[in-house]
Amino acid sequence: MDVRDLDRRAIEATGRIVDTLTDEQLAAPTPCPRWQVRDVVAHMADNKRRLLTALTGSAPEPGDDVRGDFRIAATALTAAFTEDSLLTASYELLGIEYNAAVALFVHFADTLVHGWDIGTAIGQDVRLPEDLVQAALKGISRWPDDGTIWGKDGLFGEKLPVAEDATPQEKLLATTGRSPQWTPASTS
User: Fold this and answer.
1) Which residue ranges of the chain lie beneath pLDDT 50?
2) Which of 30, 45, 117, 177 has its CA at 20 to 30 Å from residue 20's CA atom?
């Protein structure tokens, strides 16, 4: 499957949750330590702007509402990647040169799991699209376990243990440092 389609679908799934957020829900704690829902949405919008700036030289300026910022940056990123040549552009990630297709895959996985983070934070029972979960797991499993991807300085938190018979979604969440059993009440 084309990484642009994976990313677009993750943006759509997460965007549907972002679009429902009330002002009060923006202050809810999330599975991402020390981050409220507002911080996670702002992080996703910022990631989109940084990727756009690195690849195209410009990105939409942040506004006063992280929900709107998410949508505006997502639209701009999706539009930029309609250009096939952008996929082969050079992109530095954690000090290593990759092509933009790799950066977009990281963006896809990040957007997908953050959709679970914010949905779960506001009390939704989030079921991520199975094919997107499988694609994310397959891609992530290729990444080196050398301290650059997981951990406090990595792209994701430390991997958590997960049962062999766990669902693919539970495996993805644990692999990206999230407890599949996390609830807002578990932060009290």
Assistant:
1) none
2) 177
